Amino acid sequence: MSASLLILIPLLPLIGFLINGIGFRRVPKGAVGVIGSLAALGSFAVSVAVLSAFKAAGSEPQVVSLFDWITVGNLNIPFSFQIDQLSLLMLMIVTGVGSLIHIYSIGYMKHDEGFGKFFAFLNLFLFFMLLLVMGSNYVIMFIGWEGVGLCSYLLIGFWNTNTNYNNAARKAFIMNRIGDLGFLLGIFTIIATFGSVEYTEVFSQATGLSIGDPVVVTITLLLFVGAMGKSAQIPLFTWLPDAMAGPTPVSALIHAATMVTAGIYMVIRSNVLYSLAPFTLEVISIVGIATVLLAASIGLLQNDIKKVLAYSTVSQLGYMFVALGVMAYSASMFHVITHAFFKALLFLGAGSVIHAMSDEQDIRSMGGLRKKLPITFLTFLIGTIAIAGIPPFAGFFSKDEILAHAYEHNKLLWALGVLGSLMTSFYMFRLLFLTFFGQFRGTHEQEHHLHESPAAMTIPLVILAIFSAVGGFMGVPEALGGTHQLAEFMSPLYEGARQVNPEAFAATTLSHSEEFMLMGISVAAALIAAIAAYVMYVSRNSVPAPDTAERSSLERLVYNKYYVDELYNGVFVKPIAGLSNLLYSFGEFFIDLIVLGTGRLVKGVSGQLRQTQTGSVGYYIFAMVVGIVAILFWNLLIR
Amino acid sequence: MNTTYLPSDFLPIVVQLGLALAFIVGTMIVTHLIGPSRKSSLKDDPFECGIEVKGNARTPISVKYFLVAILFVLFDVEVIFMYPWAVNFRQLGMLGFIEMLLFMALLLAGFYYIIRKGVLKWEE
Amino acid sequence: MYPIILLSVLGIVVLFLGFMKSKNILLPATLLFLALALGSNFIDWNQGPLLYFYGMFSVTNLTLAFNAIVLISAFLIVAMTRGFQDDEEAQPAEYYGIMLFSLVGAIMIIGYEHLIIFFVGIEILSVAMYILTGSDKRNLRSNEASLKYFLMGAFATGIMLFGIALLYGATGAFSLTGIRGFVSTAAGAQSYILYAGLLLLLIGMLFKVSAAPFHFWTPDVYDGAPSIFTTFMSTIVKTAGFAAIFRLLSHSFAGIYDFWYITLAVITVLTLFVGNVVAVYQDSFKRMMAYSSISHAGYLLIALTALTAQTERSILFYSMAYSVATISAFGVLMLIAKEKSLDGRPNESYDAFNGLAKQNPLLAFVLTVSMLSLAGIPLTAGFWGKFFVFSSAADRGLIWMLVVAVLMSAVGIYYYFRVVIASYMKEGNTGKIRVAPFYQIVLVAATVITILFGLAPGFFEQLL
User: Fold this and answer.
1) What 3-state class would DSSP assign to A629?
2) In this model, does residue C104 exceed pLDDT 80?
3) Which of B5, B102, B116 to mutate to test the interface with C (most CBs of C within 10 A)?
4) Contact call for A69 and C390, based on CB within 8 A
5) Of C206, C317, C362, C395, which to mutate for an interface test with A (greatest number of A Cβ within 10 Å)?
6) Which pLDDT does position C165 carry in this prediction?
7) Which domain holds residue A602?
8) Do A389 and A431 have their domain in common?
9) pLDDT at residue A35 tops 50
10) Which has the closest alpha carbon to A64: A128, A144, A104, A8?
């Protein structure tokens, strides 16, 4: 595999970014979309070529070093790409789904003033995301990690005339930064422990450690903090629903299919370390399942079409973490893949609806759209069935695999998982029914304007719908007489982990009949929830009450998202602001005096003023003296 | 040379310090006690060589006074470097002579600068 | 060594050039002189460690690299001073001359081998700064800042001198090697006079680089001084000051690391805390930059506290990244403040940046890159600066300090991004802002350096 071919993958989007970014408002509008989409498609094509070359060469993982990057003491960080099963899978998702979303955006963003800027940012995002998944060490991953965060910030605040949108962007960025801190500290701990950041080096050294080594537990916990931020897990999840302020293709690409799965990628990448740290895994599964339930229950009562999907994303990410927590790394990756298909599809479908509804997002004003938007309806239906976990669509296989692993690990975990999938099915069908069935509830103007979206938007929908329908067949469980191609493909990744923790990778102890029972229960749960939703929203035709309506206290709690935002405000924001204020006034009180005094001096009043001035310098020096005395006292007398 | 001192070696200094302090404090107390104390407006007036006091003491003074004073100190102090040089003139030899010439040249450059700047023009 | 002599002489030449009728020659002449000094700096390159002036001044490749950073920063800053001569009352020749002289002081404290040279150097540097701070003569805030700086600086100098005296008393030596010789003896490692001397000297030095709790002068002085000299202070004084502290600690006192590192660690954490947290609540961009400079002193102190084999390079890289980013930030600030002046006074609040992206996209871009670099976002030089500094702390096992530093760098994002948000996302008036070509070159050069070293930090290592 030649380095020049590999470097093309991230380079093409970068070139696209440079052309559209530098030539913003100069590149003709028709060319902008073509350039942006070609960049994405080009790197998709190269990725496919690399994948086939990889398979032809016997599926041997490879590290392709491009150049020596930095050397700090004994620490040498090369700029190199690692090509193995995991990075290839991620490459396929990122470039594949990315290309479709680029094409979709040509139609969706056509009337926007910042069309060129949008494509430039989108390409830049792709570039960083590709760096993230291709890098062969934690530093490159971190750079990609920060980069995608930055792009997500730029794209959430894309319609930046609206202050709320800006706040959402800033919230996303700061929350991500909190996570990144954990990641960064994890990297430094890795450097201090292993003296390297290269995956191959770190993992081969890690195989020499024993299970539950406190250093590994620390590292994995720190890295997991990073994953919590990026993949929106409790408690760092509130930014993701707010991030829906960005244009819909952005929500589909960044906040559903790719960026938010970076945390899962990182954990799978570090599977050796995680397999060594059972405590961390325990934490991960608890956080994961709590996120599943919390987000799914919030999703039950949301009325904004994108918010429902956002909470659903958070809860699906929770499932992936549950899988990671029980060391079902392949199952987690499987869900990442299928989720990328159906969630991108759902978001794009929602975008199509919003487009048709002239930017209306409230499902209470929709209804009966299935006749006006047939393609959107059909694809949205497929996506809904897929996410609800009804066979034989993609979501069924991946979610079921996760639940089976959870069952093996801990029955309670499984039961809660099924409860979550029940809620998932309910809120998704509720969304579907409220949007596409019944009578139209919007204004006349909107009804008049209703139209199916252009081909640039519907073609990606159809392609994604096909994948959502059949994508699950890459991992048919043995019980159903299939072969799990994905797990086989990925199994070389876990050699190190298998070495350190062989029990975790032992063959399943579940009998086929048990597996059938599990499948049956989860499918039944999904169907029951779907029927319940049908009865409520189609047969009875009930529409959720407007915001002002009276709600029972439990309902209110869920409707207001458990007051998590308010809690944050009270616990973190206010005390920090208070502390800052305090420090601020400490220094600023005197400065204010001086500034005021200077103003008076200009007016010719001097007598009193000189005193305040000397007073303040005196205060400064007094503070210094206190510092000096404290330092001397402590060093010379106390020690 | 003896480089280690015992604390007792510092005793003479302590004695001298004590005597000095005692003298000052003592004279202050004694004059206060034995001198007569009378107060009158005439006596409390500031005494300035017999001339009556006029106006405020804090009148603005031309910046030129300060400039000249500072320049005086500057050149005065720099010339002090000539003394050790003169004492060691022979040992320092030609190199020392050239170095001193350079030093003087720099000083003179500064002097020329001052004159060009008009610092010494009193009337302006 | 050569730049010291050259700059001293050329500084005088600049003073005399001021007597010429046309002031237009001053700026090109100063730039030429700085370029000459920079060239002469490299005469000693790769000549191995050299000692000059009877063993009182040392030259190695790393001190030359520090000199180069200082000189290049000075070059960029001086290049932005166009318009000095427009003011009748201003005396550009004096300011240029003083800037050159102050560089002499900076270079002296970068390479001192003898505490007297250090003291003379830091006094040259400080006195020059007192004058430059007050150079906006008709502005009371500038005068006030200057006086305040002078008073506090004099106090710190006293403390420092006391420290030097105690060190001499304890060790009988002024030279760094002599002090190290004493420290390595058993008696030296226990000497309380030595400890007191080291602490006092250190306190004096920390005052100059504005570490908490000796930072109180910084916001007032940075705010009061004309922006161009604030830039000068926050880049050159800081770079040289940290080179000097590093020299003292690594050459003489590495043997009693266990004694001083805790004190330094506490000061580091305090500095990081004060700098970052108070910066959040500033409404003036310039004042924010003052607090930001305090916080960057904190990051540099981390490297000092760790004192590993890599520390000097970390400090070097960090100072470079910080200086370049600061220069471009202040460069933009000066333009904007002048453009949007209120009642004849430059407007230095955040609001002045509203809608900058529409008025001049280049300026907005330059500002954004510099803010990203200061905040330590990847692919800018600032990120690698932080990375090197943090990894040296990790090497020492100072994880708790690292946690604070990383947290504080998150706080930093908040206030650095405020101005980016203002320039891209807020509406301002739409008049275009024109930038003189020369100015533009400086800003672009600084931005290119930031991005270049952000993409390939290894390149910097190869230069050494």
Assistant:
1) helix
2) yes
3) B116
4) no
5) C395
6) 94
7) 563-638
8) yes
9) yes
10) A8
**Do B29 and B72 share a structural domain?**
no
Give the pLDDT score at A324. Answer: 92
Determine, for residues A620 and C390 on separate chains, whether the beta-carbon distance falls below 8 Å.
Answer: no
Residue-wise pLDDT tens digits, A381-391: 999 999 988 88
Which of C61, C120, C41 has its CA nearest to residue C312? C61
**A474-495: pLDDT as tens digits:** 878 777 777 788 888 888 888 8
Q: What is the pLDDT of residue A615?
A: 41
Q: Closest chain A residue to C210 measured between Cα atoms?
A: A624
Cβ separation of A73 and C196 shorter than 8 Å? no
User: With contacts defined as CB-CB under 8 Å, which chain C residues touch B113?
Assistant: 15-16
pLDDT at C37 over 90: yes
In order, the DSSP letters of C159-213 are HHHHHHHHHHHHHS--BHHHHHHHHTSTTGGG-HHHHHHHHHHHHHHHHHTT-TT
Instruction: Please tell me the distance in Å from B107's CA to the nearest CA on chain C.
Output: 11
Residue C407: both structure tokens together: 């947290």
8-state DSSP, A79 = E
Chain A from 114 to 153: CB within 8 A of any C CB: 139, 142-143, 146-147, 150
Closest chain A CA to residue C190: A636
| Residue A440 lies inside a defined structural domain of this protein | yes
Q: Which chains touch C (3 or more CB pairs under 8 A)?
A: A, B
Claim to verify: residue A361 and residue A484 sit in the same structural domain: yes
Phi and psi angles of residue C284, each rounded to the nearest 5 degrees, phi first: -105, 130
**Of the residues A526, A559, A592, which one is the last residue of a structural domain?**
A559
Contact C377 A150 (CB under 8 A): yes
A164-173, A335-344, C12-21: segment of lowest average pLDDT: A164-173
Residue C141 has its nearest CB partner, among A178, A598, A623, at: A598
For the segment C47-61, the average pLDDT, to the nearest whole number, is: 87
- Of the two residues A179 and C289, the one the predictor is more confident about is C289
Same domain, A369 and A489: yes
Q: pLDDT tens-digit profile of A82-124?
A: 988 899 999 999 999 999 999 998 888 888 877 888 888 899 9
Q: Does C299 touch chain A (CB under 8 A)?
A: no
Interface check C310 vs A, CB under 8 A? yes
Provide Rg for chain C, Cα atoms: 21
Neighbours of chain B (3+ CB pairs under 8 A): C
Structure tokens, C66: 């520090």
What ipTM does this complex have?
0.86
Q: What's the count of helices (H) and strands (E) in chain A, helices before strands?
A: 27, 2
| DSSP one-letter code for B37 | -
Which of residues 136 through 165 in chain C touch A, CB cutoff 8 A? 140-141, 144, 148, 151-152, 155-156, 159
| Stronger pLDDT, C424 or B88, i.e. the higher one | B88
Please tell me what DSSP assigns to residue C432: -
Quote the tokens at residue B32: 């206060």
Domain count of chain A?
2
Predicted confidence at residue A581, as pLDDT, reads 47
> Do A445 and A387 fall within a single domain?
yes
Cα(C69)–Cα(C409) distance, rounded to whole angstroms? 24
The residue of C12, C54, C91, C131 whose CB has the most chain B CBs within 10 angstroms, and thus the best one to mutate to test that interface, is C12
Start-to-end CA span in chain B (Å): 60
Q: Is C214 helix (H, G, I), strand (E, B) or coil?
A: coil
C9: closest chain B residue by CA: B106
Res A610: pLDDT = 35
Q: What is the CATH number of the domain that holds B90?
A: 1.20.58.1610
Provide the domain limits for residue B109.
Answer: 63-117
Is B51 part of any domain? no
Q: Is the residue at A39 inside a domain? A: no
Give yes or no for residue A444 having a pLDDT over 50. yes
Tokens of A535: 């009865």
In contact, C354 and C425? CB cutoff 8 Å: no
